[in-house]
Amino acid sequence: MFYFSCLRFFSFLARRFFQIEYKGIENIPGEGKLIVCCNHKSVMDPLFLAAPFKRQIRYMAKSELFEDHGAVFRWILYHLGAFPVKRNSGDAQSIRTAVQILDEGGLLGIFPQGKCVFDNTPFKPKAGAAMIAGLSKAPVLPVSIYCDGVIKPFKRVTVRIGKPISPEELQINPKSTASVRAAAGVIAEKINQMLEEKN
């Protein structure tokens, strides 16, 4: 499969050029729908995040990646399972696609900060991940990617995988803005706790 062939190749390169340590791999569910929610440190994050998973992660990716880099790059993104989302807008189509992936028992990867945050400021997500969790009734797996400073070759990168947050714990009412924001705050708190552990 194209996705796993690419993942094995780039994971090999990543192990050669980055000191990656994974903690909490045992928290990854073996089956069932799941939203993988992570802070965004670098363009390498989708690779760092996908490596310990035995199932394909379908990523929401900013639409500019599909529009600004040519047909070949767009083809690669689609065949890797990514799909576009328009940032800073209520992109109903991308939300429907995300919910459909989850309803079919798939894994959805979201970096809800919306862009790379290169320093170690606290994780402040937008509400999209919580909204999708509320619509799909899917658990959320919090993940943190930590590096002391900007991620560069041969620097240590720590990827922490937390325990899934159940729909019951999030208690999201998709029709309530306050409920969605509260759930986003719960997700942020879990990820920030892992980031504070550092190495």
Automatic annotation (TrEMBL):
Organism domain of life: Bacteria
Signal keyword on record: no
InterPro entries per the UniProt record, alphabetical: Plipid/glycerol_acylTrfase
Ranges for domain Phospholipid/glycerol acyltransferase: 34-148
GO molecular function: acyltransferase activity
Entries under SUPFAM superfamilies matching the protein: Glycerol-3-phosphate (1)-acyltransferase
SMART domains: PlsC
Pfam families reported for this sequence: Acyltransferase
UniProt signal peptide: none
Record bears the keyword Transferase: yes
UniProtKB keywords: Acyltransferase, Transferase
PANTHER family (alphabetical): 1-ACYL-SN-GLYCEROL-3-PHOSPHATE ACYLTRANSFERASE
Protein name per Swiss-Prot or TrEMBL: Lysophospholipid acyltransferase family protein
